[in-house]
Every structure is written in structure tokens, then in C-alpha cells.
From TrEMBL:
Keywords: Monooxygenase, Oxidoreductase
Domain ABM residues, every copy: 19-92
One family name in Pfam for this protein: ABM
Gene3D superfamilies: 3.30.70.100
UniProt superkingdom: Bacteria
GO molecular function, one term: monooxygenase activity
Protein name, entry field: Antibiotic biosynthesis monooxygenase
PANTHER family, alphabetized: ABM DOMAIN-CONTAINING PROTEIN (PTHR37811:SF2), BLL5343 PROTEIN (PTHR37811)
Length: 125
């Protein structure tokens, strides 16, 4: 869930709280053999999880990568966390693809959005 060269340049929409997010921040190793294929498969799998809401991704020129996955409820997040293929990809990530990473999971209690092209009115604080 952390390499999105074709991702649209727009954030995932704001959802009605509460919902959950998983923030995965990583620095990759130089050898990324097999990473793209596995990442594509993980994206395919997570989209099938009932309650999966979307994903945002950003990467700095220096190589820090941040992926935020959004989930409707804790059950959806647990389904993703415990998926057998996802667990195998996590193991491979630790042995092959990541120098380091952090994972933060949070329950969102407040959410709003702004878009210059949104004609529904002004942004809310």
C-alpha cells in the first residue's frame, strides 16, 4: 500500500466520522525486486475489504513514503490487518523492501474537506 505512481492528484474525500485510518510511513531499501507486483496485489485485495474507504499516498524526494488507508470501522481494519496475503507481504517487506517503517492507527472523530472547484459553499473549520 505504498507505491502509487498513477494515483490521482486529489485527497480521499472527508467521510462522516467515526472511521479509522492506518498511517504507514516508510523508507525503502535499494532492492525493490518484486515490490511493484506485490503492491499492486495488495491494492487489489484491500479494495475488496467491506468498509475500505480509500487511500492517500505521498513520497518525498528523499525517499520518505506515507500511505494513509481509510476504513469505515475497526472490523474492516482488522480484516485488512489479518488478511493472509497481506501478512505474507508484511513479512517480505521487513526482510526485503523496508529500511524502516512506522504504523499508526487512529479513530477519526472530526473530518472536513475543501476543494476550490467545489461549488457547495465555503470550507468548514
Amino acid at each position: 500500500m505504498s507505491d502509487h505512481p498513477q494515483a490521482p492528484v486529489a485527497p480521499v474525500q472527508a467521510f462522516e466520522p467515526p472511521y479509522y485510518l492506518a498511517v504507514f510511513t516508510s523508507v525503502k531499501t535499494e532492492d525493490q525486486s518484486g515490490y511493484r507486483e506485490t503492491n499492486a496485489r495488495m491494492e487489489e485485495l484491500v479494495r475488496k475489504i467491506p468498509g475500505y474507504l480509500g487511500m492517500d499516498h505521498a513520497q518525498t524526494p528523499g525517499g520518505l513514503s506515507v500511505t494513509v488507508g481509510y476504513f469505515r470501522d475497526a472490523d474492516a481494519l482488522t480484516a485488512w490487518r489479518t488478511d493472509a496475503e497481506h501478512r505474507a507481504a508484511q513479512r517480505r517487506g521487513r526482510t526485503d523492501w523496508y529500511e524502516s517503517y512506522t504504523l499508526h492507527v487512529a479513530k477519526v472523530e472530526r473530518s472536513h474537506a475543501f476543494s476550490r472547484t467545489d461549488s457547495t459553499g465555503p470550507a468548514q473549520p
